[in-house]
Write a structure and sequence with these properties.
Mean pLDDT: 78
Strand content: 25-35%
Helix content: 25-40%
Low-confidence stretches: 2-7, 17-63
Shape: globular
Number of strands: 19
Number of helices: 10
Length: about 425
């Protein structure tokens, strides 16, 4: 089942990660630009989200007229010789962000070997987005095999749990981990359309290779309420990989399963859940993985699997190969490759792109440096050429006038 974990984790990331160890430090995201243009006070409210014109931080004046986003680069500080960018996301420039990649033990739960985590908080602390570490579980219907899995779980492997769906995960996670009440838990039909396509592709590949495994993904969302009155939203992706094989000892067939569960949540003041939903959708759809890092990580995991299969666990040599794998990839492509990869998204097939963008509620805007996806629902967009973007619905708003000595360029929406 180990080969299926990468497919399940990749599906969870596209549609939006047993034990770590004390060697995993907290990793801080690095913003592209840490200061407001011209020293001006920047509002982070969505245009028109508050009737009184108040922003997320409660400020008045120009709040609600525009939003400035920075692409925050999150790092892998453990996997290679030096910290490298693993993925990036868009956040308002005055929000506090932290997170990055956490590596588990080589002998631990393979589904939790490489995971990401992100936390972002508004300046006043009232709005908080979090993508906690994903979780992985295993199960077998054969009692003897289940006993073996239980022993592995006690030694640091994946915990045991029967397959479950995203709705069940939200209800249990809210109650046990968040100490919150979940309500109106339902399937996320928009994202489920893409999930079904990915499941069909994975199952087709399995059949063509003669495999007996099947993949089923569910995506759900639910409303949250904490005892202090604050509200929120939780989105979850759960992928179950089911493997059926002949039981030569007892006859019949044995069913084994591996389950990957990935949570995302947003917390906000009471009565502002709609604004919470807008923020959450923007953050999740802005996620971009560094292809150089992913290539080096996948190569390392492939080598690790081959060594485990052959029974030759040479950890020191393996970590050296891991570092050299990234060095080779880095020498072949500089940071420009990452930027070019982001821009090439505009060259995808037009019909499929419109279908996916409709589901994700984003639009493509273009300036002199290329194309970028931003949250839909805004009439105008401006860029500054350093990874900062401004979205507004205010007619005639010109950031070059609002922010003196700045060079904002109006972007063009692609049809």
């Amino acid at each position: 089942m180990k080969g299926n974990w990468a497919m399940a984790a990749g599906a969870a990331i596209l549609l939006a990660g047993c034990g770590g160890n004390k060697e995993n430090p907290m990793i801080t995201g690095q913003p592209v630009n840490g200061s407001a243009p011209g020293g001006a006070t920047v509002s982070t409210a969505f245009a028109g989200s508050a009737g009184s014109g108040a922003g997320v931080d409660g400020s008045a004046a120009t709040s609600g007229e525009y939003i400035i986003m920075n692409r925050v680069r999150f790092l892998d500080q453990q996997g290679f010789d030096q910290p490298v960018e693993a993925f990036s996301m868009l956040f308002p420039k005055d929000w506090r962000t932290e997170g990055g990649i956490v590596w588990g033990n080589v002998g631990g739960c393979r589904g939790e070997f490489t995971r990401s985590q992100v936390k972002a908080t508004s300046p006043d602390g009232k709005f908080q987005f979090e993508a906690p570490l994903s979780r992985a579980f295993q199960w077998a219907d054969d009692p003897m095999m289940r006993q073996s899995l239980q022993a592995g779980a006690q030694a640091g492997g994946c915990q045991l749990n029967q397959p479950f769906n995203a709705q069940q995960f939200i209800e249990g996670y809210a109650r046990q981990d968040l100490r919150a009440e979940a309500s109106n838990v339902r399937l996320d039909e928009n994202r489920m359309q893409l999930a079904r396509v990915l499941d069909q592709q994975a199952n087709s590949i399995s059949r063509q290779s003669g495999g007996q495994s099947s993949q089923e993904t569910t995506m759900a969302l639910g409303d949250l309420r904490w005892p202090d009155g604050s509200e929120g939203i939780m989105v979850a992706t759960v992928t179950n990989m089911i493997l059926r094989s002949p039981n030569y000892m007892g006859g019949g067939a044995t069913t084994m399963s591996s389950t990957s569960a990935t949570p995302f949540l947003m917390r906000c003041p009471a009565g502002r859940r709609a604004e919470c939903s807008q923020w959450m959708n923007l953050f999740m759809t802005s996620h971009r993985v560094n292809p150089i890092w992913r290539e080096a990580k996948d190569r390392f995991l492939t080598q690790l699997g081959q060594i485990e299969h052959a029974g030759r666990m040479e950890r020191i040599r393996l970590m050296g190969e891991q570092s050299r794998a990234y060095a080779r990839a880095q020498s072949d492509a500089s940071d420009q490759r990452m930027r070019d990869w982001e821009n090439r998204q505009a060259s995808q097939d037009a019909s499929q792109k419109r279908f996916i963008q409709t589901i994700r509620e984003v639009e493509t805007w273009r300036d002199a440096s290329g194309a970028v996806e931003l949250s839909s629902g805004y009439a105008n967009a401006w860029s500054r050429g350093d990874g900062s973007y401004l979205l507004t619905n205010k007619p005639g708003f010109d950031p070059n006038s609002a922010f003196r000595e700045q060079r904002w360029t109006q972007m063009r929406r692609e049809q």
